[in-house]
Amino acid sequence: MPGLGTSFGRGGATTAQQDLANADAILIMGSSMAENHPVGFQWVMEAREGNGAKVIHVDPRFTRTSAMADYWLPLRAGSDLVFLGAMINYVLQNERDFREYVVHYTNAPTILREDFQDTEDLGGLFSGWDGTQYDSKTWLYEGAEPKGGAPGMKAEGGGHAKDRGGEAQDLDEPRQDQTLEHPRCVYQVLKRHFARYTPELVERTCGIPRARFLEVADVFTRASGREKTGAICYAVGWTQHSTGVQIIRAASILQLLLGNIGRPGGGIMALRGHASIQGSTDIPTLYDILPGYLPMPTHGAPDERGLTQYIKRHRSPKGWWWNLDKYIVSLLKAYYGDAATKANDFGFDWLPRLTGDHSHQGYWSEMADGKVEGLFVMGQNPAVGAPNAKFERRALQKLKWLVVLDMVETETATFWKEALDSETEVFLFPAASHVEKEGTFTNTQRLLQWREKAVEPPGDAQSDYTFVVKLGRLMKGRATDRPRDAGLRALTWDYKDEDVEEVLREIHGWSEGPSPRERGEGGAPAPGEGRQLPIKNFSDLKADGSTTCGCWIYSGVFDGENKAHARKPSGRYGHGWGYAWPLDRRILYNRCSAAPDGAPWSERKKLVWWDEAKGEWVGDDVADFTKSKRPDFKGDAEKGGDEALPGDAPFIMHPDGVGWIWVPSGLKDGPLPAHYEPLESNVENPLYPSQQRNPAALTMEREGNEYAHSPDPRFPHVLTTYRLTEHHTAGGMSRTLPHLAELQPELFAEISPELAEEAGVENGDVVRVATARGSITARALVTARMPPLAIDGRRVHHVGLPYHWGPNGLVTGDVVNDLVAMSEEPNVRIFESKGISCRLTRA
Amino acid sequence: MGTSSCSGKTTTCAPSPVPCDLVMSYYDVPLLKKPVWTWEVPLYFFVGGAAGAAAMIGVAAQLGGADKKLVRDARRIAAGGAMLSTPLLILDLGRPERFLNMLRVFKPQSPMSVGAWTLAVFGGASTAALISDAAAVVSAATGLVMATYTGVLLGATAIPEWKRYAGTLPIHFGASGLASAASLLELLGHNDKALGRLASAAAATETAIGVRIEAKGGTDITTRIGGMFSGPLPLILRLIGSRKTRQAAAASQLLGSLITRIAWVEAGKKSANRSKP
Amino acid sequence: MTVTGFFTDSTLCIGCKACEVACKEWNGVPDDGFRWSGKSYDNTLALGHSTWRHVKFVERDPAVGRGGNAAEAMTWEFSSDVCKHCEHAGCLEACPTGSIIRTEFGGVYVQPDICNGCGYCVVTCPFGVIDRRPDDGRAFKCTFCYDRQKAGLQPACATACPTGSILFGDLAQLERYADERIARLHAFGMTDARLWNPKETSVGGTHAFFLVRGDARSYNLPEKPEVPAVLLKKAWSAAAVGAAAIAIASLVAFGIGHRAQGTGHR
Prior knowledge:
heterotrimer; A: alpha/beta; 5-stranded parallel sheet; 30 strands; about 20% helix; B: mainly alpha; 10 helices; about 0% strand; globular
């Protein structure tokens, strides 16, 4: 999420899928949306049919999405940044930017420090590289004071929490040049940075003919300006790269230049991998953030030792994150209840601390080293779905115990079948499915939707929720008097076994007030009774310990009633159906849909505008802006936070109130995107020959996780993995169901007729696909939908492998993820599954 | 752009629904479903056809004043054949216990319905004919339908090989039934020359039909073999005219009739598997 | 009661197969086997006793010279097939038990409590739709979601379709809409878009008609389907000739035979 988070302020899709219907052009890249988001794709179709919107699909494979597109550009996997960089360059060279928007709503006019040096000057490195990591000081705005330390730069610092920006610097008014001519203004730096990303380079590196690129660049960049908008949709085809966050950054820059953020039919649609992935970062299953994108404190960090220091360190003087103190204190109250007092920093010291890389691959690596004793696996099947699944299955053998909670007997629960001498004790608990329990999903567009329980779970199956509640109770029962258990003792855990709504109420929050007796109304209430007073939303939260809130961004969802349960949609964006965080805003940053003076840019593209008579922002969406803040408000520098931002600063989370083309802090691999080849590639980095790969990415190279060389004649082909409509991720929920399993009953490798000819393979033959990690077999599906690409005069073949199969279920097959290396993108620590060097042979 | 055609390549790609020779189809997936009938159905065609024709021969023989034993045997073949036909038909049903649903309605537009009712009446009449001359007339009348309707049953379908011969199959099957009835009586020891003439006439008809089918493009090897045993071979044998060759011709026609029925059902299945839109 | 129909617009189908799955879920249809076909993404390949909706994946080779909607590349068209619910339905006319009936909505419906599995409908369907399920013994095909229609609901497939490729409703209205749609696509330059609805043949039109591109045969849709009943006259005439020939031959054979015998005795 840092790609979107640092650019705009929040780590979520800026738009709603329904809004795609309003677009004039839609660029789908790093996603086969029709394939993996078929329901949401209806609005792409609506745009195509209704608006005559041009649909552009850029992908190595001709997929179900390409079949629906007006333009399909096959590109080499891993060259996405060259393509997007060239789009940005095209906009700048041809002055296709929406200048009024760019000047007022982005940091393009902001002037940078003199000591910043670009990749263009340093052969592929930005200034601040110390051989292992960046010090981002030189990336700050001119005149900004660094807060000290190197925020978010250390491995254990994680990356997700750095979405908020602004924590690296304290600045008042950044110096700007609204003519965009100052050589050190972001606009000019950007122009120089991307100058070598040309159509010719696209042809050489991506395999897209120059003329084709220019045609499509023209089509997409015309969806800009007052009358038109264009949207970009992406999914894991962008994120699962060693440069994933920077690819998303490039898209953000492009959309900011075109003025397409916060406007109807614009935006960036981050398509999530499956149900409630957005929810699992909002209320995270991640190791480095607390609910609502509050940073997890780091062990031993001097500036995070106490709550006061933590707040000082992470709060920003201007913009919405000024309120961080209210959110962290309310969260601590939710965790520790009455035990959290001002005297004990509201229990801040009880919070766990980051001690290292505890991301999925980080702890799995430690597991392989025998450093992990036990593991709970819930809602996941890493034995099939995780990178280098073979490595991970082996790591499971080092555990003492493993608890798997699932609806079916997944390969993770049966990993011991390929290691019969494994001494890991495995417990398999039957879990309730999504229709057998209630709760919410937070979908791809931040929409919380309540789910009812349709049927009782069978047999002993229980929901994850019930399991965790009971587990927590058992753990609290075993809490000792030792200091390390103080947090566990203090933790409020009086949940009922099944009342999930109770949790949603706590997430929404409440304030504590005097009980009726305390107000002198007599009676002797039971402890706690009458003390919980309703709040409307996070605006009511306080930092004095009088409010409780489990996740501030969701606060508002239980304003009087369970709004996630609302089922009466109305208007263009379906308000009244579910609840979109924050505050039911469907299109984020929608202040951008009006010009600086508050009037809509055009009648056709109006969404939210200033109503002088009413003295407030009105329109088709809930304004993502303080409702009564006038467009000509200058900002009150005396006050902190939102009030310090002027009435034409739409990106309210950012301390300067604008969209960030340039990210002065918060990213570990640069303030601007730069193209690096995948960790394994047979193509030399044409831009920075001395910097083949992302310097900040981690390869985690070790026995069992080997890499091919770059280049490596042993592995001449490019592997890309993906999913099919018919199956669900690692297959636990689809390989076991006959109606889905029959639709794609066997693992196949998609290859071109040319590659088939070279390998002596016919359609339907069994082929072997090998990488430096190992090899698997699959049936060959020979199709012209997998064209070989001409890269720098060479013919490059892709091999496409969907990864849904494993040894269990009605239909079985080899585990494709055995071929994928564990690796970590620096910011979010995701692995690279697109653009892997492999070899395909006849089996 | 690396897209390319599979034409003229040594490798094959996933078969395109538009093959290089532009014969339109969908990956050569058959348009039609294969008939689900198993061995019971051709055997029923054979038995029912012989029985039906035998009922007619019985009446004709009686009217012509032939040997009473011949009349009796013809009626026995008719009744026996009818009795054998019913279980064969029931066995072939997916839900045999629901056989009586066949008589739930009468649908003249459905050859299967007409056939079911015909078999029902024929079964009763041919059995009654063992003791009643009047019933024998009803038996003969329905027997004529029994001998020929199976050709309609196959012909009036969507199966290419059957519908192509919709106007031929009823006559083909009728002749086949007549040949098998006459031949069976001959093999039972009746040497009434009328039987020989009928069998010869049937063999001649079968030969003519064979020629006609070949002229229309022909069918497969099995129907041809059935045709040989039904047409030219017995015709020649019968022209030679000795008792032995007559017996051989009778056996050939009986066998030919059985092979013919099996062959046509199988040819239908094969053609369904090859069917194109 | 409204006469209803399906209009399947292939240009809006994204090949997600939700219709196939929704149909099976609603109607309790079993799996159709777990065989990988190697034919594009289609592993079901055809309609049948256990597949009542079927999505076809028409992968057209660029060499054929068709500019697709993704220009200068190939095209991959998807189309959800279903029982055509013919105006003159071969299966219905052939069914000897009266199990197959026409419903008040105009659909062709197999009453599962009556079908005895004679298999005659299988060979009389000109589209290869209906088939006998081996382990059950009865013939099955799309029910037009008769139960759902009775309850005022749309069929499961149309309900599940995310892109409006499968439209369900008043047949006459759908036909009017389809004509408009064709005109619109032609105006967009998709000149090979056309309707497949065999009204001119003996089938007499269908309650499920399709918008396809180019030759309908590449979607396994026959150009000129005929209901087998048109052959009845020819076949029964031949049967009459055959029967008469047997009768006359028999009478003549025995007449002549006995006169000859009698002459011999005299």
